[in-house]
Amino acid sequence: MRLSQADLRHSVVLEVPEGKMVTAGLWGPQDAHRRLLERRLKVRLSARGRQLTIAGGPDRVPFAERVVRELMSLVRSGQNLFLNDIEQVVKLLEGDGDVSVGELRAQTLTVTHDRRAVSPKSPNQQAYIDAMEQHDLVFAVGPAGTGKTYLAMAAAVAALRAQAVKRIILTRPAVEAGERLGFLPGSLVEKVNPYLRPLYDAMFDLMGIEQATKLVENRTIEVAPLAFMRGRTLNHAFVILDEAQNTTREQMKMFLTRLGFSAQAVVTGDMTQVDLDRGQQSGLRHAIGILEGLEGIGIARLTPVDVVRHKLVRAIVQAYDRDAEAKSAR
Fold first, then answer.
1. Residue 24 and residue 18: Cα distance in Å, rounded?
2. What is the pLDDT of residues 17-54, one digit of tens each?
């Protein structure tokens, strides 16, 4: 990135008592983080001894200082930074200058099998986690990549480890599990397995393949199509209904009335990705419309700002949103 002398006429010097220990974590491997920060913030960063200098235009340096201080607080707390963390912190502070990234990530929902802390990465994710802690039934809606399924799975694992529940039940509607999959060999479970794979992915990441497989084999964790829930009463369970935008009104009512004693449910979905036949109303949209405000029910709404996948995912989500708004206006 090339900055003119006019671009560098303002600077601020930060004291870094820990010296290279912090700047190395902030700079990243081969200074990859530093280069990304300079490109995103339009400033120049340099470090010498226990001083870190931010140089740039007077309209850029204050925000860059805010970002750098937040990132240094993460490094000091022992967190390893990755490129997506840099992107996430920058876009988060662009949208909310008052948020404390350090305080957000200091709150741990659970720990993965390889000792990584699962923490909220935005205020909306924090509100989602709070809702799951305070309500027996939570609806979480938002675009792809906002952590809806992963955080629900993390909360379920935390509840199981704390012995607050005896089992975890993961389910999704299999929209394509009818005649169009009838020619495939195997049982219904095998036919719809691709639809359940994202739930397995989250489970394996949190618990490790060996432990998760053992818990699936002894039925402590059950992964099944939504159709398998009919007629059951789910007691002492943490139940996650994923991709709920593809449930019909009847399926949603069936699922919600399965909850038994000491049960908790989280229903996740993206209302922009409904695959139901034309003319069918999404059971998720209908349920939120009639249940919002009832005691014991929480609603968490996530936005493109909360996307924690590749930076392009946020841009793609926003582009589709703009296109939908333009078509609606026409």
1. 10
2. 887 878 888 998 999 999 999 999 999 999 888 889 99
Q: Terminus-to-terminus CA distance in the chain, angstroms?
A: 41
- What is d(CA 236, CA 93) in angstroms, rounded to the nearest whole number? 40
User: Rounded CA gap, 130 and 27, in Å?
Assistant: 33
Topology alike, domains 6-105 and 119-329: no
Three-state DSSP state, 20: helix
Percentage helix, strand, coil, to 5, in the chain? Answer: 50, 15, 35
The pTM of the full predicted model, rounded to 2 decimals, is 0.79
Q: Which CATH class is domain 6-105?
A: alpha beta
Q: Which residue ranges make up each domain of the chain? A: 6-105, 119-329
DSSP H or E segment with residue 71? helix 61-76
CB contact set of 287 (below 8 Å; sequence gap of 6+): 139, 249, 252, 253, 256, 267
How far is 184 from 253, CA to CA, in rounded Å? 30
Distance set, CA 207 to CA 158, 161, 285 (Å): 11, 11, 32
Kindly state the average pLDDT of the residues 238-244. 94
pLDDT interval class at 3 (50, 70, 90): low
Residues with Cβ within 8 Å of 226's Cβ and at least 6 positions away in sequence, in order, are 171, 172, 173, 174, 241, 247, 251, 255
* pLDDT tens for each residue of 88-138: 888 888 877 678 888 888 788 888 888 888 889 889 999 999 999 999 999
User: What are the phi and psi torsion angles at 279 (to 5°)?
Assistant: 100, -15
* Alpha carbon distance 215, 222 (integer Å): 8
**Closest to 307 in 3D by CA, of 295, 325, 319:** 319
Q: In this structure, which topology does domain 119-329 adopt according to CATH?
A: Rossmann fold (3.40.50)
Provide the token pair at 112: 């993965």
Residue 206, CA atoms < 13 Å, CB-side half-sphere: 25
